[in-house]
What we know:
Blueprint: H1 2-8, E1 13-15, H2 22-26, H3 29-45, E2 49-52, H4 55-63, E3 70-72, H5 88-94, E4 102-107, H6 116-129, E5 133-138, H7 145-155, E6 162-166, H8 170-179, E7 180-185, H9 194-201, E8 206-209, H10 216-219, E9 223-226, H11 230-241, H12 245-262, H13 265-279, E10 289-290
Parallel strand pairs: 1-2, 2-3, 4-5, 4-7, 5-6, 7-8, 8-9
Antiparallel strand pairs: 3-10
Helix pairs in contact: 5-8, 6-11
Amino acid sequence: MRHLGERNEVPVIVHTHGMLDPWALSRSSWKKWITGRLWEYENLRRAACLRVTSEEELKSVRNFGLKNPVALIPNGIDVSDFENLPVREEAEGLLPNLKDKRVLLFLSRVHPKKGLDLLLKAWRTLGRERRDWLLVIAGPDQLGYAQELKRLAEETDLKDSVAFTGAVFGKEKLAAYALADLFVLPSHSENFGIAIAEALASGLPVVATRGTPWRGLNEHGCGWWIESSVETLADTLREALSHSQPELAAMGAKGRSWMIKDFAWERLAADMVEVCDWTLGRTAPPSCVTFD
């Protein structure tokens, strides 16, 4: 990558995609150390600009010791994709095991990074307390982790209050959002977390841990951004589940408005064009670029 930029005499912009997050660096650390020492760290150091998607990712870049200019531009979402969710009857036809319950939805990769062990432990008591709610874990299984979670659910007597749907796409994915009352993503680490943006665009309030960069959930009144612990997650979910459907829907409407205002692709693409023009020497640094 560095040699390509030098050969063509063009600046290189590197999107770090969470690679410098401490949790990510700790996974397969010896492999990352080798590739980093051989070429990747030098690529990062010599980039004209680094692009990150959140303030948390920016902190990881600086803590790693990189001094490059950094463009803070979040990922975007096409909110119109989530405007016309299936009506309840159609959604229940697509996902019949979600009928007749209020739904707490997790929809993402089923992977150790996503904090599902915390979620099931937090749900251990809540699932018995709130028989009207169903925890739905939807998403593709990675590393065989779903089987481990199913065993944990059986060991903790949660099998009647937890449903595993496997991967959902297209209409089934939209049906899951349509049937949900509340969304949860208790990740240990996320540089962005597109599933949270999709849930908010679908009008769902969100519970997310501070391993995700979504502090705005609290600021915009559309969810909860909390510490990553079983106790805090359980207490927060207990509070969230006590809200009525109209109360949760009102929170979700605030989240959707936030997505329209700050995460539309048109606005974010314009920021990226400004960054490219600046690295080519055509303009002054745009406001999304920081040198600190």
